[in-house]
Amino acid sequence: MSKVLVSDPIDQAGIDILSQVATVDVKTNLKPAELIEIIGEYDALMIRSGTRVTQEIIEASTQLKIIGRAGVGVDNVDVPAATRKGIVVVNSPEGNTIAAAEHALAMMLSLSRHIPDANASVKRGEWDRKTFVGAEVYKKTLGIVGLGKIGSHVAHVAKAMGMKLLAYDPFISTERAEQIGCQLVELDLLFQQADYITLHIPKTPETANLINAKTLAKMKPTTRIINCARGGIIDEAALAAAIKEGKIAGAALDVFDSEPLAESELRSLGKDIILTPHLGASTAEAQVNVAIDVAEQIRDVLLGLPARSAVNIPGLGPDILEELKPYMQLAETLGNLVGQLAGGRVETLNVKLQGDLATNKSQPLVVAALKGLLYQALRERVNYVNASIEAKERGIRVIETRDASARDYAGSLHLEATGTLGTHSVTGALLGDKEIHLTDVDGFPINVPPSKYMLFTLHRDMPGIIGKLGSLLGSFNVNIASMQVGRKIVRGDAVMALSIDDPLPDGILDEIKQVSGIRDAYTVTL
Ligand SMILES: NC(=O)C1=CN([C@@H]2O[C@H](COP(=O)(O)OP(=O)(O)OC[C@H]3O[C@@H](n4cnc5c(N)ncnc54)[C@H](O)[C@@H]3O)[C@@H](O)[C@H]2O)C=CC1
Ligand SMILES: O=C(O)C(=O)COP(=O)(O)O
């Protein structure tokens, strides 16, 4: 039975799902050294933001197949290191959207009305109505940095509160922003005009320290900043200084450069700052959502099925996966086949998407073809996660072309591998949307479903050759399940594709190549 380590608190609903397929150990607050010591036992790791999955931890794993982040941000996981090791990293892109957006909105209103400090003062026995005079958000300008899932929900609610919305997000269109009721502007303009700035971006090298002394200087003395995205997007020392010097009015922070927040100037800024301990996703509803979402993906991967929200399988979202699933199998089979026909070291793989496939998102199909191509060399170590990296490290050049006019089949895939031993090609299509058929080998038209053991010959199309091959195989007790010849002209060159019931015994391939008229022969295991 597989073993799953849950190293941060997650909802029981997730544990229940994992328990269907695995032994689940919940061990929270592990020190890095403790995690390194035990990670070798586990097939899956489930975390939230509390566990840092570093390169050392990933390298110490020996059978880890999946890291599941019960939340959105995967900045606490060394994703490139996981990718190199073929470990799929999944998250829950939508499970806590509402929770995080509502926390940001709650922070904005709390900061405007000094609710935390006013509450604390009443609880101390005071009745101070002067100190806590606030500001309204109605008709104020909210600058949203990052108009993704959380930013969009914040926009939706803020709009209903009568706020004017500016947004900065270089990856979304003006039309989309307008649909959400936001005016897309440059960052500088947002900094200059916003009364409230709320951050909803991932932490990346581009966004680290986005709010710093220089950008803070562009803001109005009445500006309030809300960060429920990630620590490190704000330079905390610069922010504390700006609030102290009255350059901006205040800030509400849920996330910090280093968590838990250690000694910090931020704690000394009174009612102009609100600090919460990374609570954005901490609602009962969100925790159930993310736990189920991620546990289901871990369960699926442990059962050998694909994950729906893998962050390190390029271009493979759930909708695309659904649409391309049968073609992924086709691409993988063809990659495996052409790799075996080419033998030796493959230097170039041409991937041609034909017919309807020419209009599809091709990246997953290319990855699947590479996975198939590398299977002989890497066996189970190659998967959708690391196939592209492994190919790159082996110097395999991938050329992708499209031909929408190829109409023999609704959609077909043509792979051509050139390596140290020459060039070979295969084409395949799906019949009835499901069944894989090989439709061409080395330029010769055929129509056969692939089988586990196959034999291909390149020969001269002449009488008697099929009989000779048949009796030779028979003398070695090899049973032929099906056989088909593909030729372009009568008595010219031809290809024979045979499905056989068992692997070809040693030595027989050389004898086949000696048969007069047979120029070459290849045995393939799929
Ligand atoms: N405090 C908490 O507990 C929680 C925090 N989060 C954090 O909130 C953030 C946003 O989450 P979602 O909205 O779900 O993600 P999302 O992926 O839907 O949206 C992020 C948006 O940021 C934009 N973006 C990326 N780089 C940018 C840049 N350099 N400048 C401006 N925009 C940029 C993207 O185009 C995208 O539209 C993430 O960092 C996530 O980790 C999420 C959930 C809970
Ligand atoms: O989902 C996210 O990105 C979060 O920041 C939530 O973090 P958490 O799971 O509450 O530790």
Give an overview in words.
One of its GO terms (molecular function) is NAD binding. Catalyzes the reversible oxidation of 3-phospho-D-glycerate to 3-phosphonooxypyruvate, the first step of the phosphorylated L-serine biosynthesis pathway. Also catalyzes the reversible oxidation of 2-hydroxyglutarate to 2-oxoglutarate. This is D-3-phosphoglycerate dehydrogenase. Pathway: Amino-acid biosynthesis; L-serine biosynthesis; L-serine from 3-phospho-D-glycerate: step 1/3. The chain has helices at 12-19, 32-38, 55-60, 79-84, 97-113, 115-123, 149-160, 174-179, 187-193, 213-216, 236-244, 284-302, 318-342, 363-378, 387-393, 465-475, 508-514, and strands at 2-6, 22-26, 44-47, 66-69, 88-90, 141-145, 164-168, 183-184, 196-199, 224-227, 250-253, 273-275, 346-355, 397-403, 411-419, 422-431, 435-441, 444-448, 453-460, 480-487, 493-500, 518-525. It is an alpha/beta fold. The chain folds into four domains: 3-95 and 285-303, NAD(P)-binding Rossmann-like Domain (Rossmann fold, 3-Layer(aba) Sandwich), CATH 3.40.50; 96-275, 3-Layer(aba) Sandwich (Rossmann fold); 317-450, D-3-phosphoglycerate dehydrogenase, domain 3 (60s Ribosomal Protein L30, Chain: A), CATH 3.30.1330; 451-525, Alpha-Beta Plaits, CATH 3.30.70. Helix 13 packs across helix 14 and helix 14 packs across helix 15 (387-393). The model has no long low-confidence stretch (mean pLDDT 94). Bound molecules: 1,4-dihydronicotinamide adenine dinucleotide (NAI) and 2-oxo-3-(phosphonooxy)propanoic acid.
